[in-house]
Each structure stands twice: as structure tokens, then as C-alpha cells.
Amino acid sequence: MKKLNGEELLFEYVRDLIYAPQEASLEIDKLPENLHRLGEELCLLGEGLRHQDALAHQFADGGTEEEKPSEERRTEGAWRPAADMIGLGGRAFEAFAESSDERYLFMCNMDTNVSRWSKSIVEEFGLPGEYMYDAGNIWLECIHPDDRELYLQDLNAVFSGEKQNHDVTYRAKNKQGNYIVCTCKGYLLKGDGLGPDIFAGTIYNHGVIDDVDHVTSLYNVYKFMETLRKCKAVKQPVNLLVVGISQFRRINNTYGYICGNQVLQKFGQKLRELMRNRGMVFRLNGTKFVLMTEIAGREETQSLYKEASDIARNELYLGESRVSLVLCGGALSFRKIEMEETAVLAELEYALGISKQEEQGELVYFDDTLHGSARRKLEMIDAIIRSVLYKDFSGFYLMYQPQVQIDGTVIGAEALVRWKDDVWGVVPPIEFIPILENDRCFYELGLWILQTALASTKPIVQNHPDFKISVNVSYRQLEHVDFKTDVISIVQKMDFPPQNLILELTEHCSSVQQTVLQENLDYLRERGIRIAADDFGTGHSSLALLRDLSFDSIKIDRKFIADIVVNPADQYILKSTIQCARDFGISVCVEGVEDVETLEVVDSYKPNTYQGFLFSRPIMLSQLERLFEAPGSPRLVVEA
Q1: pTM for this one?
Q2: Where are the alpha helices (DSSP H) in 437-533?
Q3: Position 543 pLDDT exceeds 70
Q4: Domains, the chain
């Protein structure tokens, strides 16, 4: 038998008081200390009821005509009955209702449609009164329009017998006009012919807080991190399953973003129902959700993932149309958490990425008993993230790859981040950037890279005013609300000429909201900073970006250069792209030039600059500085 918590014990007792007071019993010592007084008051009420007929018989006929609400008062919503309606006015309700300022109580006589609500919720949300007729529809008007369908669906499922309990989270507008996140749990208590059905429950007020996702009303990533910290502090075992929706852009393109949000909302609610009495569910950024349970084995986790996948594939509807989603999944299991919570999140993202890109959606499972390369990966990422979190950035350093003209003249360099540790040696960015990019700490790392690059190359710029330093910018940075002002602040702090800085944006910047992206780029360009499109040609939206955004330059991705000597299609693409950029007045840099034959073909289309191993591999700052020690502009000689 399931062990009841304190609130559930009290509800069981209230139900017995309504149905069969002669049999009602409550063991006070099983209640938490904060509910002892409430339990004692309920027991006093129970003793009084034992000397009366069963409470359900009192209004078996639905009450007298005088006790029924007039049509006028029904319209107004507020109504005070002439007599107690099966306990709605009793001390049980009052004691329970006053037990918490954040948890409201309601009880409704389903025969008369009269209900009583806690005084505190009446005051908070400006309801007509403690006693209301047709309160369900009155409360519906308070619920956010986007959440009403879920509220009604869940309620109807209870009343139709499909579900035993009402359990849904939504937003409701209080009398100040602010939407409050609420979780409503209700219980339908059947009268079974002896009296009316009672619908009773609680509404928990989460408040206007930052740890609830506004689309799904689930806890968000900040609450997830807080929960991980608590688990870590008490050394609680924890099992984490992260699920992501593959190709969700297809949903947005087919139905639109509003319907896309509705799909996320419905899926989130289904996950919440799945996790009832099993654990917690959180929404991360985008289309990712985390299901948290106590420690579980691989088989239990695999079963939970299958249940979530079945829901996504078969149980989501927009109107009459079924929307079928495909999931990918990753799991981490800890007997006790020893790594930073942000590293835990990064590893979940990493596992999810493997599931999506390499395992066709199969669950990727890690736990803290792993050995070999998987264990090494976990420990390495934890060490890297710690160096960012503690803001000492130990192990991180920059290398610089020169950018040259056709004659070898160095006109700039791209700053490239690396990480080195005594245990793991030099770790290339491909090993950690994809993981860190999904973590909040990546923004801080990006600012460190920018500041370090400007501080390191400022002496070169002072002696060679045409030298440009290029710094990569992730779409995650562009999404940050303080990005543009932080960049300008660093440029001013370093006293670095803004016209000598080029920010290189990857093709993924197309995922940033267009207005936000345009605003950031306009702000930076107005202050002298140049903008380049990196990895140009690797995504479907590159030409659209070239059309819509004001780039100063583009970098042709190396994948179009690797076979250009023998591939006429790549030659045509390169020629057309360079001509198109030239027509827009945009300069072109070609990267990946690694041999003389490639250089000869590329140079026939006359790009502005080159970058590649043929001229120079990435070098340390001291090597870059030595290039500029001799008088005049440095020139890298290419051997034929």
C-alpha cells in the first residue's frame, strides 16, 4: 500500500468525515509536526459528528428550496448558503484552509454546484466570495488563455472516470493582473447514493517566480540546478533522464510557433502525469526535458524512456489532429553527486547529442560506475567547467591562425581557444565546445576569450593599425540579453580600437530570433566593430543571412575547398559565392587552403584573404608577435 504524506492523510480523514463519520479515524502521531494542530482540530470535529446521523444523509435531497441559490445570486457568482452544505462551512474546512498561506483549499458539492474556497485565494485573485456557485467557470476566467484547454481536459478526464485525481499546473491572473503559476490537485469523492459527490482539493501558489517555465508551467533549468545542489548537499542518489524532441522545427513550420508552444505544453503536462508519485520533471532550454527520480537501474530508466517516447508518438493532439514526435534521450545515474551541477547538465546535453546524432534516438546511459573513456569524458568536462565557474579559467589559452593575402602578407589572425591540463594534456575545442555551448558557463568563457584576445593583440595593433583580430561568437552568446553591452564594455576597458575587431558568427546564429540578432549586430557595427559570417555555406540559411544581415565579410567553409581541385561543383559554388559577395560589397576569406594546387584554383576566383595550413597552422601569441618584429608588414612565404 502506498504510504500517504501528511496532506493526503488529512484528505482521507476529511473524506471519511463526509461519508462515514462513525468510521473516521486519524493517527495524529503520523502527521508532520506542522500539521499536528490541524489534525487535532479535525479530530474534535469528528467527535462531534459521531453523535449525529451520517453527514451525507443531511442533504440527500439536495437541500430545501430556500437553501438553493436564486438566479440573481447564481449570476453574481457569490452565494452564502442558509445551512452547512455537507461540511463546507465546518471547522474541518476552516482549519485546513488556514494551514498554509500558499496552499488554498476548495470543496464543491457536485449536486448543487456550490463550493467553498479559502479566504486567502478569494483575496489574492479577487474572487466573488468564499462561497460560489459555478466556481469552475469563474476560476476558468482567471486561468491564462493558453492554459485553459489543459485545465478543462484534465478536469473532464476526472469527471468522466478516466482519471482518479485532478493534477495540473497552469497560470492564473491575480487581482493585480500578474499571472501566478499554480498547481491544482483535486479529488472526486463519490457519494455512492448516500449523499452528493464532493470535488475537493488544493491549489498551490508558486508565485511570480523565475524557476517556472512560462510555456509549459514546469520547473525550469534554474530550479533543476537548485534541486541538484540540494541532492548533492545531502548526498542523495539521483537518476536523471533527459529527453529531447528531434526535428521540432518541422512542427513549427507546419503548424506555426503558437501551436508549437501548445505541443510543448501538452507534452510537458503528459510528462508531469507520467512522473506523478515517481519524481520531478523540468523543462530545459528549447525542446529538452529532464525527468528526475531516485536512483534507478538501467532497465527502469530504459522503461521510463520508452513510456515517454510512446507518449510523444501517440498521445499528443492539436484539435483532432494527432501530432507524432520522435525523441532522443540521455541518462545519468549517481549514487552521490560529486561533480558541479553545471557539469551534470553539460553531460546530459552531451549524452542527448550522442543519442540524436549517432544512435538514432536510442537512449545513451551513463552512471558514476563508468570506467575507461566514458568516465574520462565525465571527469574532463567537470574539470573544464570548474575552471570557468571559479572564473580563474585555469587551463584555457588562445592560439592564433594568421589570415593572409595572396602574396602572404599577414593582415589579421583568428583567435582559437584551447584547454590544457596535466592529467588530460591538450584538449582540442571539438572535444569541449559542443558540450560547453549548451551550458550557461559558456557565456562567461566567451567574454574571457574576447578580453584575452584583445589584451594580447593590442600591442600588435598599435604598431600595425591595419591588423584585425577575429573572435568567434556562438549563437548562445548572441541570445544573452547583455551580450552587446558586455562586448562594448570589454572593448572600452581594453582601450582597443573597435574597427580592428571582427566578430565571426556561425551559421547557427540563424536560430536566434531575427529581431534580437539584427539589433545586436546593428548596435555593434554602429560602434565600429566588424561582423563576419563564419562557416559560410554549411547551412541552408546562409544566403538568407547574407541578404538580411549587414555583414562586412564572409568566410567560406573548408568543406567546399577540400576537393575543389577535382570537383567542378565545388568550383562553381565557390565562384558564384565570391561573385555574389562582391556584388554585395562584402569581402571574402577562404579557409582550409592546405596545398599549392588548392591555392591556385581558389586564387583564380580572387577572394580577398586566405587562411589555412599552407600559410600557417595556429601558433602561440609569442610566435605571432615575432612575425611583426621586423620592419614593414610581415609576409608568410609559401613554398611551391
Answers
A1: 0.52
A2: 441-463, 475-479, 483-494, 514-526
A3: no
A4: 6-207 (3.30.450.20), 221-369 (3.30.70.270), 389-627 (3.20.20.450)
